[in-house]
């Protein structure tokens, strides 16, 4: 068995250990007994290949379980009395329609506090605040582990109806403060160039901001299967960079030139929107898709993809189970790497003109790879998603490029910015009309009650087995002893 195969098995065991810790809530004695039993089983195994494979899996599983245990916070009991503490606004301010969400870090509290404050007075990143309120632990909302979701950003407490006093300004990281101020300025320029809902649409594409969308418009995106367009996630970036690479190659650029141009573009884009942890992960997944197309060797890509996921999950184990953005990013990348080419042959009846066949194969690959997760996380699936994405997604790089030029032109001349803004409006108008038409179909969205993670795991086990049989080069001796 090659070293790369051992590493892959260890990584799979590591992911399984983390998943078991967070999903099964096993007592420690059960875990120790299971690992001990597996070691006894391996000791008496007669096949060396089977022995090594199971041993690697056990080692990875134990490491993942221990890492999840170590990362699980040990917090003091919930405080029932009012507490006064001083902290700094450590993340971008989240303004809602009826309130403002502030993430406050304080030396007096273990972990950060999510403070729900009134809309006014306004606060910004880096403000030092004196807060008086009762700290509460976030709970479970309609089966959703809201507490685990907040842990992804280091938030372990919530605070509502606080009394707040501003102490000082500008005490945060200067680079992050500069990026957030710039992001706010860009958002204002977008709102001046375009009117609603197109301004919010472009802001979602360029900055990942979704504040201006009405519930009705968000429902259109959901039913059409295009919600990912509004989120800066690996699902979105991997599809867009794949389409842009095909576009550059059709323009006559060499593959290596297109690769480095897109890597530079992804890096600039990540910095442009604030370089948060989720955006950085999405950018990395996009670069991995470019590497897969650049090298054309699935074995190398599998190793790098596995190593990248292993580093991300080892750094913050909760993302594996509770971060839907990371899950969609990883699975869509796997789908684009392994399933795009086979699915292009499935849709070979489509013409190659304008990249229709390639776009359809990529969209179908990402959709198929994320389908079980979508059913589990969102309780439904858009059956028109492939058609909508094939018609809309290829134009999104154009809208983003023209929108970026319009925003940059606004620093020079507002009339010039409006000139660039008109074609952006046309592209966004077309996209919204297509999505509204598909979303208006009575059968476009199917709610599914497949909310058990066991069903999702079984679906991915079948899909993974099919991909393994199709692409992996596994010694036959291994199968004889499994």
From TrEMBL:
This is ComEC/Rec2-related protein domain-containing protein. The keyword Cell membrane applies. It is found in: Cell membrane. Its main location: membrane. It is a multi-pass membrane protein. Residues 205-470 form the ComEC/Rec2-related protein domain. InterPro entries: ComEC_N (IPR004477), Competence_DNA_uptake (IPR052159), DUF4131 (IPR025405).
């Amino acid at each position: 068995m090659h070293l790369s195969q051992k590493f892959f098995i260890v990584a799979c065991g590591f992911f399984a250990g983390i998943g078991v810790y967070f999903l099964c809530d096993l007592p420690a004695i059960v875990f120790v007994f299971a690992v001990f039993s597996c070691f006894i089983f391996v000791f008496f195994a007669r096949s060396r290949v089977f022995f090594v494979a199971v041993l690697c899996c056990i080692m990875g599983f134990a490491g993942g379980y221990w890492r999840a245990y170590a990362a699980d916070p040990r917090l003091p009991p919930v405080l029932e009395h009012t507490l006064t503490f001083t902290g700094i606004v450590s993340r971008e301010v989240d303004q809602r329609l009826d309130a403002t969400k502030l993430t406050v870090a304080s030396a007096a509290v273990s972990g950060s506090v999510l403070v729900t404050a009134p809309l006014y007075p306004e606060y910004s990143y880096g403000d030092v605040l004196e807060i008086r309120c009762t700290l509460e632990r976030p709970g479970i909302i309609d089966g959703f582990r809201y507490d685990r979701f907040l842990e992804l950003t280091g938030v372990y407490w919530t605070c509502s109806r606080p009394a707040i006093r501003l102490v000082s300004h500008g005490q945060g990281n200067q680079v992050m403060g500069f990026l957030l101020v710039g992001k706010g300025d860009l958002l204002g320029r977008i709102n001046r160039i375009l009117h609603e809902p197109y301004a919010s649409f472009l802001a979602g594409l360029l900055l990942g901001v979704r504040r201006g969308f009405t519930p009705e418009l968000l429902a259109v995106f959901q039913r059409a299967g295009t919600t990912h367009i509004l989120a800066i996630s690996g699902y979105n970036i991997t599809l867009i960079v794949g389409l842009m690479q095909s576009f550059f190659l059709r323009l006559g650029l060499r593959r290596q030139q297109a690769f480095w141009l897109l890597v530079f573009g992804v890096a600039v884009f990540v910095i442009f929107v604030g370089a948060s942890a989720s955006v950085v992960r999405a950018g990395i997944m996009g670069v991995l898709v470019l590497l897969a197309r650049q090298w054309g060797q699935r074995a190398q890509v599998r190793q790098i993809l596995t190593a990248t996921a292993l580093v991300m999950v080892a750094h913050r184990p909760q993302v594996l189970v509770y971060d839907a953005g990371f899950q969609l990013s990883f699975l869509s990348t796997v789908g684009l790497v392994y399933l795009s080419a086979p699915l292009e042959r499935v849709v070979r009846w489509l013409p190659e003109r304008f990249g229709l066949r390639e776009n359809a194969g990529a969209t179908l690959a990402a959709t198929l790879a994320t389908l079980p997760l979508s059913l589990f996380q969102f309780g439904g699936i858009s059956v028109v998603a492939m058609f909508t994405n094939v018609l809309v997604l290829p134009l999104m790089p154009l809208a983003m490029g023209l929108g970026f030029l319009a925003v940059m032109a606004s620093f020079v001349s507002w009339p010039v910015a409006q000139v660039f803004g008109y074609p952006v409006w046309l592209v966004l108008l077309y996209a919204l009309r297509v999505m509204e038409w598909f979303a208006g179909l009575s059968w476009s969205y199917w709610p599914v009650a497949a909310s058990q993670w066991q069903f999702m795991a079984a679906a991915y086990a079948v899909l993974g087995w099919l991909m393994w049989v199709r692409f992996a080069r596994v010694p036959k001796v291994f199968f004889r002893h499994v």
